[in-house]
Design goal:
heterodimer, A: 378 residues, mainly beta, eight-stranded antiparallel beta sheet, five-stranded antiparallel beta sheet, B: 176 residues, three-stranded antiparallel beta sheet
Amino acid sequence: MKKLLLVLFLYSLTAFGEIQPEQIGVIKTLPETYPAHWIIAQDASFFHMNDGKMIVLDADSDDPSARYKGMFNASFIGQFYQAKTRPEMYVAETFHARGTRGERTDVLTIYDKRTLAPIGEVVIPPKRASQMPLDYNLQLVDNEKLALIYNFTPATSVSVVDLVAREFLTEIPIPGCSLVYPLGGRAFASLCADGSILSVVLDENGQQVSASRSEKFFDANDDPLIEKAAMIDGVGYFPTFKGNVVPIDLSGSTAVPGEPWPLVGDKEVGWLPGGLQVTASDAKGHLYVLMHKDSYDGSHKDPGVEVWVFDTDARRRIDRIELQLPAISIAVTRDDDPLLVATNINMEIDVYDAGDGNHLRTIGDFGQETPLLLHGAR
Amino acid sequence: MKWLNGWFDGATENSTRSVAQKTSRRGFIGKLASAIAGGAVAIPLLPIARGQQAANAFPGEEGDRSSCDYWRYCAIDGFLCSCCGGSINSCPPGTEMSPITWIGTCENPLDGVNYIISYNDCCGKSSCGNCLCQRNEGDRPVYNPRASNDLNWCLGTSSNTYHCSTAIVIGTAIDA
């Protein structure tokens, strides 16, 4: 057998020796900063959750093969964050030793944006909240030195990770409250079931220095804040079930709720915010809200048929974008000429010009199944 | 766990809407005075407390338990165990039922009474994949966990892998 292989090898050299052979083993890389119109589709793989995917796409491209830039994994409804200050992305994910069973291990995995390869991981308590993907399950504070991971067992707490030393620091209980919203400096906020908001200040080791709870400022049962807020200049904009928006100033070390204002006019009966990721923002400070009509009790996760765009300073709507197909999640790219991207009900991605609302293309057939969340790339 | 469903088939005009419109969720927080309605519940229903027991007999029910429209599923989000080898109140073979869960309040069209439904998840195997159903009557954001169907309730089980959801009647809802 070996002789035969040798003969074949020599024959191939003889027959094709005159051409320059292509190099074997080349692996492509990506730029450290992604182009502004690239997006990352968070495919939770709802029908086999251990195989979640983060897929990097060029939303400007009409070439189905060239617009797929690469992917990396996020096991069991992983939660995702892109750093601004270093070329890293983070996934909080869960593994069992034998796939669906065996010892559970939760990790914060660190990915290199250039290689899409894992370059480190921090084992965290096996408590991270297992729930629909949501930006506020994983956030960074303190100039991105600390990562905060929301835990739900159902006791609620936050795991603190030092991203420089790449080590787990501590766990902070947040009884009665949930999620992590970044505050200015080294602090975070959490929404509470009684209609208040908790603010927690940390020291340089991630330990709690202080915690304070606001007065009740919303009715968590009758008109709850939708927890899927958009961030604009340190202010979180939270739509409510009944069609208002509550701005919460998160720029300091204590969350300060502001005055609600209406998203829906008196004559726009039946229109309400809804979907999975219902808000987005752009570099100009505009607020985008996914809206559906003919609302009813329980329609707050129904697909939206329009995206309404608001000037948050003037507190007025400046545009209505009619969607080609109803959508469950939206995102907007980071540049001054942004794209609006939306996961439609066929689990494809519709790309719109956020400025004039024109539908530009539909991105489908990229190996996706349930791209529940979209992210404008950084 | 819960979620999806109509998103996949564009069923925003699903027939659950008519049910939704006539099914009030009787503010179960603090108003939940539940009565055990037949059938022993073998595992603790944390974090939901049960109120006084009542002698009322469960009148029965009608309909297709594999249909997302079925009355008990008014706040469910996930794969129906009725389609996965289990039943409306039991888990499929080889899975493990979560001891804690979220609840909904659904009206039984047979007697017009609102019942408290415990949506215990079945865990330890990957997604069933059959009969995905999402309805959100009374669903609240995840900071209100006991009423939130965005959470995977495979908690307190040996594996947190989600397989399907049951819909177990645990009592009647009584207005405060």
